[in-house]
Every structure is written in structure tokens, then in C-alpha cells.
Design a protein that fits this description.
about 350 residues; alpha+beta; 60s Ribosomal Protein L30, Chain: A; Phosphoribosyl-aminoimidazole Synthetase, Chain A, domain 2; 2 domains; seven-stranded mixed sheet; six-stranded mixed sheet; 13 strands; PurM-like_N_sf
């Protein structure tokens, strides 16, 4: 397959227009049991089994950064992978893991990593059904393989962009730049300590364990008015909202000042000169919910210790995605480039 335009971002996900031109037109043989296939703004695909049960699937890299410590790194890897099927509204139940490990990994490190995966799987009722484990020359951290998570349940429990209606409300948990802050605090602790002190650095580091939407989705599954959920990963809240609206063919009016924020995150982003709303935010759940359940959903999140707020509403498709800030409304375009990766590259080069 020849690709004439080879323009790609320096790092991070491939841009949507490349997928539209190269990937999505070539998805193999069509099958009628696929009810949600690959699309922008949807983290999972769904097939309908013969008995009517729906199965949601999502694949991701198995991401291990030794500098985080193997227990913490494996926690992150598990939650990244399983979160993408949890947003389907179905319950995560199965996991397949392919580990292509670097030669330098030790038996103790592998045991620590796998014990953490097992512990988290037990905690969330996920069974590991198959996989592959080996060390190979040429394999390097942090991408040490891949995994596929599966969630199952009746079609009535399935959420998706096709369910969204005009007038529905937008609810956001945890606010922007969750992953950005958690990872920067762990990767560059001395910079935050020097700027703000050790207590601030510890609070920023604690954000690491917010980088999951499994608890958020467990709360949201109790509300039949929840239409669709999306984890704000690369390009953050603005990228996630743009992708959601495009996937569902609806408009959004987002009130910037009403989006929940966390002070330690906003200060961290200011220090590193990062726009928090376009930076990677694994753990931030974007929810479209029926208007009569939005308030109760926010209260349920807060009761679980999850910061949340209602921050906008669904409008007509021709409106596109708009952001209201300081009394002015502006159109929102996809950010395209996530500043987190370039910031990390710069900080590593500075030593």
C-alpha cells in the first residue's frame, strides 16, 4: 500500500485525517455482527453474539516505565487498557496480554509486574484468559507488548455516541491534565520540589492514582440516562470533546469556567508552560447524560470521592463544538498535537 502523504506528528497518536484516508477504508471483510466499529472519539468496538450479548473490545500497548517502579507501572498499564472498554457501559470481564519484554528485565521485576496486574484484575473482576510472555532482543521500554480488554453485557447497557440527544448535558470528572501531572511529578520530582516544595510534589505525585476511569465508569453505569463516555487521553479535554462530538454527529457548548479543576494540576501545568486543556489526561471521564440525571450523576461521583462538574450541553450538529470563556464563545478545533510529549522530550534534553 503506497502512502503519498507521509506527514505525521513528531510523537503521539496519528492524526484523524490519516485514519480517514488510510486506515478506516481498509478494515477487512465486513460482518453484520459488528455494531460499533473503529471511529474517532470511541475507545472500543462492539460485536453482538448469537445470544444477543454484546462484547466490547479495545487494544492498547502494554506500557511499562521502570522509573515509576514496577508495581506502579503495572497498575498504570492495567488501568489504561481496561478503562477503554469500561467506557462502553458494559462490565470489564476479560483480558488478553502479549508481553514482548526487553532482555534486561529480571525475574523479580517481572514477578512484581505480574502480581500487580493480577491484584488489579481480581479487584475489578477481570479474568486473564490468554496471552504470550517472552524476552526478545530489540524490545524496549516502555512499549513492552500489547493487550486486549473485553467487556460484556446486554445491549441495553451499551453506551455510545448514537444515543446522544440535543439538550443532553456534559459532565466531566477530575478536570484537565490528570495524566500530565501524575507523570511529570514522578518523572521530574526535583523540578517541582525546587519550584513549590516537597509537599506540593507529593500532592502532584498522588495524582498518578487518578489515572483511571474504572471507578468513574462503575458509578456512571448505575445511571440509565448516561448516553456515552470517553476517556480524555491524548490532546486532553478539548481533543476528547471534539472527537466525541464528531463521532456522534452532535454539537457541544462547553463552559470553560464550569469545568472542575484541581489546583495542584493547574499549578503544575503553569510551571511547565503546558495548556492543561489540550494535554493528555487519562483518568478524566467525559460523560454525556440526560438532563434530568446530570445533577444526580455529579453528586454520585462526588460521594465516591471523584471531583466532577456539569460543564455544558449538547446542541445542533451544525453548531460544532464551541467553548464559552470569559463571556465569549469561540469554535473549538482539534488540538492535533499534545504538548506533554514535547515537554518531556525537552526536559530530558535539559537533563
Amino acid at each position: 500500500m503506497k502512502i503519498r502523504d507521509k506527514t505525521l506528528p513528531a510523537l503521539g497518536k496519528i492524526p484523524p485525517e490519516f485514519f480517514d484516508r488510510v486506515i478506516y477504508p481498509r478494515l477487512g471483510a465486513p460482518r453484520p455482527d459488528v455494531i460499533i466499529g473503529p471511529r474517532h472519539g470511541v475507545d472500543y468496538g462492539v460485536i453482538r453474539l448469537a445470544d444477543g450479548t454484546c462484547l466490547a473490545l479495545s487494544s492498547d500497548p502494554f506500557f511499562i516505565v521502570p522509573a515509576y517502579g514496577f508495581d506502579r507501572a503495572a497498575w498504570f498499564a492495567f488501568h489504561i487498557i481496561v478503562s477503554d472498554v469500561a467506557v462502553s457501559g458494559l462490565e470489564p470481564v476479560y483480558l488478553a496480554v502479549d508481553l514482548n519484554l526487553p532482555p534486561e528485565i529480571t525475574a523479580l521485576e517481572l514477578e512484581t509486574m505480574w502480581e500487580t496486574v493480577h491484584r488489579e484484575a481480581v479487584r475489578y473482576g477481570v479474568n486473564i484468559v490468554t496471552g504470550h510472555t517472552a524476552r526478545y532482543a530489540g524490545c524496549n521500554y516502555p512499549m513492552v507488548g500489547g493487550a486486549t480488554a473485553l467487556a460484556a453485557g446486554p445491549e441495553s447497557d451499551l453506551r455510545g455516541p448514537h444515543l446522544v440527544r440535543s439538550g443532553d448535558r456534559l459532565v466531566i470528572t477530575k478536570g484537565p491534565a490528570v495524566e500530565t501531572t501524575g507523570l511529570l511529578a514522578i518523572s521530574f520530582p526535583d523540578r517541582l520540589k525546587a519550584a513549590f516544595g516537597a509537599d506540593f510534589q507529593r500532592r502532584a505525585e498522588a495524582i498518578f492514582y487518578q489515572m483511571s476511569v474504572l471507578e468513574d465508569c462503575a458509578v456512571a453505569r448505575r445511571f440509565p440516562g448516561v448516553r456515552v463516555m470517553h476517556d480524555a487521553t491524548e490532546c486532553g479535554i478539548w481533543g476528547g470533546l471534539y472527537e466525541m462530538a464528531r463521532a456522534g454527529g452532535f454539537g457541544l457548548l462547553v463552559e470553560r469556567e464550569r469545568i472542575v479543576t484541581q489546583s495542584v494540576i493547574m499549578e503544575t501545568c503553569r510551571h511547565f508552560e503546558i495548556d492543561p486543556f489540550v494535554s493528555i489526561s487519562e483518568g478524566t471521564l467525559l460523560v454525556i447524560v440526560a438532563p434530568d440525571q446530570a445533577g444526580a450523576l455529579v453528586e454520585a461521583f462526588q460521594a465516591r470521592g471523584i471531583p466532577a462538574s456539569e460543564a455544558g450541553l449538547v446542541t445542533s450538529p451544525e453548531d460544532g463544538v464551541r467553548v464559552k470563556e470569559a463571556g465569549r464563545v469561540r469554535p473549538l478545533e482539534h488540538p492535533r498535537t499534545d504538548p506533554y510529549w514535547l515537554t518531556v522530550e525537552r526536559l530530558l534534553s535539559e537533563g
